[in-house]
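Board notes (copied after class):
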Amino acid sequence: MRGRMRRLLACLSLLFFLVPVTYVRGPAPPRNNSQYIVLEPIALDASDPARRRVGQLAFLGGWIISSRNDDFGGISSMVVLPDKRFLMLSDNGSLMGFTLDERAHRAVRPFIAPLPDGPATTTKYPKQNWDAESFMHDPETDQFWVGYEHQHSIWRYGSSLSRKEAAAFPAAMQKWPENGGAEAMLRLPDGRFLVFSESAEYSKGGYQALIFDGDASEPTSNARIFGYQPPKGYKLTDAALLNDHSALMLHRRFTPFDGVSAILSVARLKDFQSGQVAQSMPIATLKPPLKVDNMEALAITRDRDGPIVWIASDDNFSTLQESLLLKFRLLDDTPAQTGPKAPIQNEKAGASPGFSTLESD
């Protein structure tokens, strides 16, 4: 019975994965503009609260994030600033921020507000045009970049996201599906930008991505096309630089029978070449009974022990889903455990000959 109920809820949730969010015209109810954000601590596996390992990730903490604010939810991307200051972008163009107090499970100095500027209004429902899918920050200049769907474009904002500095609508992106725009974005160490489509098919395999010879928000930057092939059955939802040689890639999948799952993998930056099809090596799979939802946002921070991986979910503004924030330690290539208590991971989550997942030279 429990399995049937899970499949039923999964089928209902499918509607929110396949149908873009729309805004129905009618009398507007009183808005809730609460600035409070609540954090509820969770285990990685409710059936085994002591469980910590999944693939090459060690679970350090997790929270369900909620707010009564009408614009809260739909987390598609995030940036983590020093002192665990989180900035999260929503499908409706809202910016949500807070400082994470892990010990008290509190969101300190929270706020929820619209971005200062975005794509021009072409419908009666302007926020549908502000579907912000990718998000980056340069700590040296304190500039931010946002990739939008619907009106496919890359925008650059100044310090503290206070104003728009530049915006470009690259010709190569205008043929992408309306709901398959700049799902992920990377800034390479040499200053070039990579922008990935979630669903625009590439003729040589996988899905389209673009290499810009400079800042993708500048109209003068030129773009060349390449392909990215996600793990079979999955779609790319975000990416983040791991070091000068590799990036972490986040993917999601939904099926009526298996529900939601996510794969985190490592890609080599040298494989992102014009005219080629790049792949990545899975290092961890999140699927039931682990806590997982529509995982769309990825960020990396570091402490004295190495990389920390943060993953957040998009609840699609649905009461059937949750906004999750998960924290993991990225481990080295230690072989996975075996036996009945082994952590759930993809069959190919280990390194293969010639592919070092944490390559450093």
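Comment from the instructor: Residues 20-24, 334-357 have pLDDT under 50 and may be disordered. The longest strand covers residues 57-66.
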